[in-house]
Amino acid sequence: MNLPIAFLDRMKIKLGTEFEAFLASYDTPVYTGLRVNTLKISVEDFLEIFPYPLEPIEWTEDGFYYREEDPVTKHPLFYAGLYYIQEPSAMSPVTVLNPQSGDKILDLCAAPGGKSLQIASFTKDSGLLVTNDINDKRVKAIVRNVEKYGVKNVLILNDDQHTIARVLPHYFDRILIDAPCSGEGMFKKDSKAVKAWASYANETCAKMQREILEVVPDLVKENTELVYSTCTFSEVENEAQMLYLEALDAGFKKQYVTSDFFDVKNGVAHLWPHLIKGEGHFIGSMIYQNGACNEAVGIGNNDQCVERKNSRHFVKPQRQDEKKGSNRVKKDRNARAEIVNEMPTVLKSFSEQYLNQVLSGTFMIEREKIYLLPEQEVDIKGLHVARYGWLLGEIKRDKFVPSQAFAMGLCMADFKNVANLPASSVQVLKFLKGETLDYDEVNAYGTLTKGFCLFCTEGYPLGFIKVEQGLIKNLYPISWRMM
Predict the structure, then answer these.
(1) What's residue 299's pLDDT?
(2) Which residues are catalytic?
């Protein structure tokens, strides 16, 4: 691999006697990882049904290495949202943040959403997760992942940091800033990062990072915990930014990261590719409070379990803004949105016919779509909103039509009409490709009745089908289909 000379010179000074081992790591294979979605399945149950060999990732209980030759992204369990493909080192910042149930959490630079999904697993999808990315296209990946992995207590934003600080001042219990950076830690994994390094030099990225950090004092409140992370080795993008934050407001105090797995010096963690099975990363932690804080923050296993909540929370739809050069999803201030505490009539009729559990909470009807708002509602006026809560479906010809997001947020036991097929079934593959299904073969795995049916594999929903006069209509969305 041809690495930039300036980068090599700096790393040789920084690493000293370890430099040769560091350089040799670029000739080793890239480690591939997945993280189990514990909102849907426990790690133990997942390991019983996953067909390929896995090796545990040391710093998180729900993360595993998989073999690059195994087609894990083509398996039906992937489409069921039971696991997320994530670089192993990228699983570490959230373990330091250590979200708790009920927290109000901001993931400020979130796309494509892997760390946001991990946060939701930690909180068991409680409290409120505000996940944001300023990039118009990348925020769409967050929406898709949130839908696929069944996260409901969520507000997805396509906004800049200044707007969020103005609308939601001093609001958050925890903040994750996985900052855009020069990407030095990804050189082995992504050759494009090497080519981009000359254009996005360390100082250029550091300036952009300071612009993000300068609003953080307006986002925090007493005892807000913050994790700052990057995938670079540059001190001006890492340690210097921690010092910058302390200089902005004396209330920011370093929390000393502790770890049995990473190189920790002066309270911050470095993930070196020659020392771990993963790519390069930096993690620092702070707390905002008036007094000094020397509390240590550990990197290690987090005891997580699958837990079904009694309360459900739902979403708010937004429209695409057609402004010049912008695809942002923006709240239409002229649109009439009805917010009610009781289930809308059309949804109630659907629920009585198809659901085994009653949905409860605050509902929103906007542009014929029905959402269930998060358990911790927030005033979103002035924000560019891509998703707010759980999208249940829409009203068509005075009837409720369930959404794909609704299907992915359900458990199989929630729905009355179910077809549950093994992952090896040809019909499952046909469903994921949007093809016509064989009525008799599907019916053999669950008595099909007229109307909507939750199509599942190995006990986990993939989407809806509709049964009409001995025929099956495949409702799997075009944009979700297996290619």
Answers:
(1) 61
(2) 231
> What pLDDT, on a 0 to 100 scale, did the predictor assign at position 294?
41
* Bridge partners (DSSP) listed for residue 36: 83
- Cis, peptide link before residue 112, omega less than 30° from 0: yes
Tracing tokens 């009355």 back to the chain, one arrives at 416
Two structure tokens written together for 269: 């963690």
Position 305 scores a pLDDT of: 35
Going by the DSSP 8-state scheme, the letter that residue 395 receives in this structure is E
CA distances from 315 to 123, 365, 370, 415 (A): 18, 9, 7, 20
> CA gyration radius for the chain?
23
Tens-place pLDDT, residues 10-34: 999 999 999 999 999 999 999 999 9
465 φ, ψ (degrees, to nearest 5): -125, 165
3-state SS track over 104-136: EEEECCCCCCHHHHHHHHHHCCCCEEEEECCCC
Tell me which long-range contacts 424-432 makes (C-beta under 8 A, separation of at least 24): 425/457, 428/76, 428/457, 428/462, 429/76, 429/482, 430/474, 431/455, 431/462, 431/463, 431/465, 431/474, 431/476, 432/76, 432/79, 432/462, 432/476, 432/481, 432/482
Q: Residues 30, 42: contact at Cβ < 8 Å? A: no
Q: Report residue 317 as tokens.
A: 């739809």
- The whole model's pTM is what? 0.90
Where are the strands (E) in 69-219, listed by range? 83-85, 104-107, 128-132, 154-157, 172-178
Whether the Cβ atoms of residue 401 and residue 368 lie closer than 8 Å to each other:
no
Nearest Cα to 268, choosing from 306, 241, 302?
241
What whole-number distance in Å separates Cα of residue 53 and Cα of residue 68?
A: 11
Strands 104-107 and 172-178: parallel
User: What letter would DSSP give residue 458?
Assistant: T
Strand partners, 454: 418, 464
> Sheet of 399-402: strands edge to edge?
337-340, 363-366, 369-372, 390-396, 399-402
- Evaluated on CA atoms 64, 70, 75, 79, the torsion sign reads positive
Whether 304 has a pLDDT exceeding 80, the answer reads: no
Helix or strand holding residue 364 (H, E): strand 363-366
pLDDT digits (tens, 9 = 90+) for 156-175: 999 999 999 999 999 999 99
What separation, in Å, do the N-terminal and C-terminal C-alpha atoms of the chain show? 32
pLDDT for 438 beyond 90: yes
**What is the distance between the alpha carbons of residues 251 and 222, in angstroms, rounded to a whole number?**
9
- Label residue 25 left, alpha or beta by phi (over 0 means left) and psi (-120 to 50 means alpha): alpha
Q: Determine whether 362 is exposed, middle or buried from the number of CB atoms within 10 Å of its CB (0-12, 13-18, 19+).
A: middle
Q: C-alpha angle 192/195/200, rounded to 5°?
A: 105
| Mean pLDDT, all residues of the chain | 90
pLDDT class of 298 with cuts at 50, 70, 90: low
| Residues 400-413: tens digit of each pLDDT | 999 999 999 999 99
